[in-house]
Design a protein that fits this description.
The protein is α/β, with parallel strands linked by helices and about 550 residues long. It has 4 domains: about 110 residues, PtsI, HPr-binding domain (Enzyme I, Chain A, domain 2); about 80 residues, Glucose Oxidase, domain 1 (3-Layer(bba) Sandwich); about 150 residues, Phosphoenolpyruvate-binding domains (TIM Barrel); about 160 residues, Phosphoenolpyruvate-binding domains (TIM Barrel), CATH 3.20.20.60. The protein has 23 helices and 13 strands. The strands form 3 sheets. An 8-stranded parallel sheet has the order 12-11-10-9-8-7-6-13.
C-alpha cells in the first residue's frame, strides 16, 4: 500500500543559530532532487525515447525556479522556519494557485507539484519511507494516484500490478504504465481506502477487477489462470513471424497503434504488419510547447524506421477536449468532447497544422506512409484539410524539399455523421480508418471518461454493430481501403465479428497482436461470417456479448486472456 506520503514535520521553527543549517539542508535537498530527475530522465530517454522522458521536464523547471527557492529561503531566514515546514508551506501555496486555474491541464499540475514536494521532503527529513525501490518481493501497488516520478520507478521494482483511485487513460501515468506492460486498474474512486498494507490483492487487468483478500477458491482459480496465461504467452511468441491467415487462406493485416516513436519497433517484435495509427498529439503535450517541424520530422522518421519498411499511418494531431495544446484556454469549455477539438482545432490553427503536414510529407519519402485526419464530420472539413496539405506541398516545392506527392490521405471515421455519409466520403478519401472509441461514445451518447455511465459504453450495442457493418459494406462496394483502429480491434471478443463483416485490417496495441493473430489462424471466413450474421440479429447488448464470448471460447477454450 502506497500511502499519500504526507510527511510528518517534526518542528516548525528552529533557533536562530540553526538557520544556516536549515538553509544548507534545503540546498542539499534541491541538489539531490535534481540529480534524481536527471538519472530517471536519462533512463526514460534511453528506454522509451525523448517523448516519455519529457514527463520530467516541468519538474526540473520548477526545481530550477529561483523564485520558488527564494520564497522558501526567505521563510527560513525571516521566520526561523524549519526547512521542512518552509518547503511545505510554499509548495502548498503553489498548489492553491493551480487549483484556481480554469484550464484542466494546468489544474492537473497540482499532482506534479505534490510530487515535487514529496521529493524535496524526503531529502530534507531523511526519514526511511515506504519506497517502491525498497520492495524485496512481488507486490501490488495500491494508491490514490501515482505521480510521474513514482511511475518511472516501476521498471526497476517488484511491482507487478497497480490499482488507483484516480487517473485517466490519457494521463502520463497511464501512458507509461501501458508502455511498460504493467497491468493496471485505474479510476476506482476509493480502492486506497478499502485496501490496507499487507492485504492479499488480485489485479485482473483483463476484466478491470481488483479483489482484496480473496477466499481460497478464488485464489486457486486465479493462480490457475496465471499459469495458463504464462503458458499461452509462450505459445503466442512462437506466432511472431507467421501471418494472420485464416484456415481458408484469407490474410488479415494486423497493425499496431503507437503513441511514442520507439513503439513502432515494439509492434514489429510482436509480429505486427505495420503501424495503423500513430497518435501524434503526444508530441505536442510537452511543457516546452509544440515541437518544431524538424523535431516532428525526426519523430516520424523514427516511427517509419522502427516499422522496418512496413506501412505507417500517421494521424494529424487530435488535440482539444481533454488534451489542450500550448494555446491554453483560460475558460474551460462546457462540453469539451463536443467542442474545439481534433480537425476543428487544426483548421483554426493553420500555422501549427501546416508545420505538422510539412513534417509528415518530408518523412513520407522514407517509407510507405499514409496520413489521416481525426474526427471528420463533414465533407467540407475533409476538403479544407486536404487543401491545407496541398498548401504544405507548395511550401516544400518552393524550398526544393523532397516529399511524396502521391501520399495517400484518409480519414478517421469516428462520428455518426461520417458513418451516415460514408458513401459520399468514399468518393474523396484515399482510405477510411474506423475509430470505435469516439464512434461508440457519440453513437450511444456516453462519455467514455465518466465512471458513472461507463457501464453503458460498449461495442456490443446493436447500433454499434450495425453501423460498423454498414460502413465496411459501403467502403467495400466503393473499393476503398477500410480498417479499424479503435479498442475493439484488440479485443478477441470482437475479432470474429469484425472479420465476418468484411474487415481485413485491424490496428491495436502491440501487446494484443499475438492473441488476435492466434484466433484468426484457427477459423475460416465462413465461420466468421456466420457469427457476424447471428450477432447482428440480436437486439440487446447482453445477448451480443454472451454470444460472441461463447463463440470465441469454442475456438480458444483454454484462453485465459
Amino acid at each position: 500500500m502506497l500511502e499519500a506520503e504526507e510527511y510528518r514535520i517534526p518542528y516548525r521553527t528552529v533557533p536562530a543559530e540553526a538557520v544556516q543549517d536549515e538553509l544548507a539542508r534545503l540546498a542539499s535537498a534541491f541538489e539531490h532532487a535534481l540529480e534524481e530527475l536527471s538519472t530517471q530522465g536519462e533512463w526514460l530517454k534511453t528506454n522509451l525515447g525523448r517523448d516519455a522522458a519529457s514527463v520530467f521536464d516541468w519538474h526540473v523547471g520548477v526545481l530550477k525556479d529561483q523564485h520558488l527557492r527564494d520564497n522558501i529561503e526567505n521563510l527560513i531566514k525571516d521566520k526561523c522556519a524549519a526547512a521542512a515546514y518552509a518547503t511545505s508551506t510554499v509548495m502548498l501555496n503553489y498548489q492553491r494557485r493551480f487549483m484556481q486555474m480554469t484550464d484542466p491541464l494546468l489544474v492537473e499540475r497540482i499532482r506534479d507539484v505534490q510530487d515535487i514536494e514529496k521529493r524535496l521532503m524526503r531529502h530534507i527529513l531523511g526519514e526511511a519511507r515506504e519506497d517502491l525501490a525498497h520492495l524485496t518481493k512481488p507486490a501490488i501497488l495500491v494508491a490514490h494516484d501515482l505521480g510521474p516520478t513514482q511511475t518511472a520507478q516501476l521498471p526497476d521494482t517488484k511491482v507487478i500490478g497497480v490499482a488507483l483511485d484516480a487517473g485517466a487513460a490519457t494521463s502520463h501515468t497511464a501512458i507509461l504504465l501501458r508502455s511498460w506492460g504493467r497491468p493496471g486498474v485505474i479510476g476506482l474512486n476509493d480502492v486506497s481506502t478499502r485496501v490496507s498494507g499487507g492485504d492479499l490483492v488480485i489485479i485482473d487487468g483483463s476484466n478491470q477487477l481488483v479483489i482484496a483478500n480473496p477466499d481460497d477458491a478464488t485464489l486457486e482459480e486465479y493462480r490457475a489462470q496465471e499459469v495458463a496465461y504464462h503458458k499461452l504467452s509462450g505459445e503466442l511468441d512462437e506466432l511472431r513471424d507467421l501471418p494472420a491467415v485464416t484456415k481458408d487462406g484469407h490474410r488479415i493485416m494486423l497493425h499496431c497503434n503507437v503513441e511514442f516513436p520507439t513503439e513502432s519497433a515494439v509492434g514489429v517484435r510482436k509480429g505486427g504488419d505495420g503501424v495503423g495509427l500513430y497518435r501524434t498529439e503526444f508530441l505536442f503535450l510537452r511543457p516546452e510547447g509544440p515541437p518544431s517541424e524538424e523535431e516532428q520530422y525526426e519523430a516520424y522518421r523514427q516511427v517509419i524506421r522502427g516499422a522496418e519498411d512496413r506501412p505507417v499511418t500517421i494521424r494529424t494531431f487530435d488535440l482539444g477536449a481533454d488534451k489542450y495544446t500550448q494555446q491554453r484556454q483560460y475558460e474551460q469549455e462546457r462540453n469539451p468532447m463536443l467542442g474545439l477539438r481534433s480537425i476543428r482545432y487544426s483548421l483554426q490553427n493553420l500555422d501549427m497544422f501546416k508545420i505538422q503536414l510539412r513534417a509528415i510529407l518530408r518523412a513520407s519519402v522514407h517509407g510507405n506512409v499514409r496520413m489521416m485526419f481525426p474526427l471528420i464530420c463533414s465533407l467540407m472539413e475533409f476538403r479544407q484539410a486536404k487543401m491545407t496539405v496541398h498548401d504544405a506541398m507548395e511550401d516544400l516545392e518552393e524550398t526544393g524539399t523532397d516529399f511524396n506527392r502521391n501520399v495517400s490521405i484518409g480519414m478517421m471515421l469516428e462520428t455518426p455523421a461520417a458513418a451516415v455519409q460514408v458513401k459520399e466520403f468514399c468518393r474523396e478519401v484515399g482510405f477510411v480508418s474506423i475509430g470505435t472509441n469516439d464512434l461508440i461514445q457519440y453513437l450511444l451518447a456516453v462519455d467514455r471518461g465518466n465512471e458513472r455511465v461507463s457501464q453503458s459504453f460498449s461495442g456490443s450495442h446493436p447500433a454499434v454493430l450495425r453501423s460498423l457493418r454498414d460502413v465496411v459494406r459501403a467502403c467495400t462496394q466503393a473499393g476503398i481501403d477500410c480498417s479499424l483502429c479503435g479498442e475493439m480491434a484488440g479485443q478477441p471478443l470482437y475479432t470474429l465479428f469484425l472479420m465476418g463483416i468484411g474487415l481485413r485490417q485491424l490496428s491495436m496495441a502491440p501487446a494484443n497482436i499475438p492473441e488476435v493473430k492466434k484466433l484468426i489462424r484457427l477459423v475460416t471466413t465462413a465461420q466468421a461470417q456466420r457469427i457476424a450474421r447471428r450477432a447482428l440479429s440480436f437486439d440487446t447488448e447482453r445477448q451480443v456479448t454472451n454470444y460472441l464470448r461463447d463463440e470465441t471460447r469454442k475456438v480458444l477454450p483454454e484462453d485465459p486472456i
